[in-house]
Amino acid sequence: MDISAFSALVFLPFVLPICIYVTFSDMRDMRIPNQMVVLLFLVFAVVGLVALPFDVYLWRYIHLIVVLVAGIALNAGGVMGAGDAKFAAAAAPFIHVGDVRFLVALFAANLLAAFVAHRIGKYTGLRKIAPHWASWTNAKFPMGLALGGTLAIYLALGIWFGR
Predict the structure, then answer these.
(1) Which residues, in sequence order, are CB contacts of 154 under 8 Å at separation 6+?
(2) What pTM was estimated for this model as a whole?
(3) Eight-state DSSP code of residue 53
(4) What's in the keyword line of the UniProt record (predicted)?
């Protein structure tokens, strides 16, 4: 992995609680709160100054812009929700550009695992734990489950396998 172990270690404690809340919120309400997206952006804006060299820090904002534009296009096409697009854009600066291929594979695996686990949970006793969750009855999949998980796993793996 091209992400530095140091930056992954510095980012993860701040990002993990946000990712957990995003997955929970998306399963419960089928929406990712804007406050969590803004908070994730603020974590990068503040912690990134410590975790990354300044020139790298500034260039990472390009990741946000590129992913936001792509997310807006995908949302307009009905492929993904607006909250998913905004969360992906806010998460983009945390990703080292050299890890994009790895991240795509990680996201694909995480998306498949999250989808299967969610659908299995929907038809088992797990549903009784949170019967009011909107994702149990909605035909759409709560993509925040996979997006939040992917960012958290990426940073955790970066601690062990990063440069």
Answers:
(1) 3, 94, 95, 99, 103, 106
(2) 0.93
(3) -
(4) Membrane, Transmembrane, Transmembrane helix
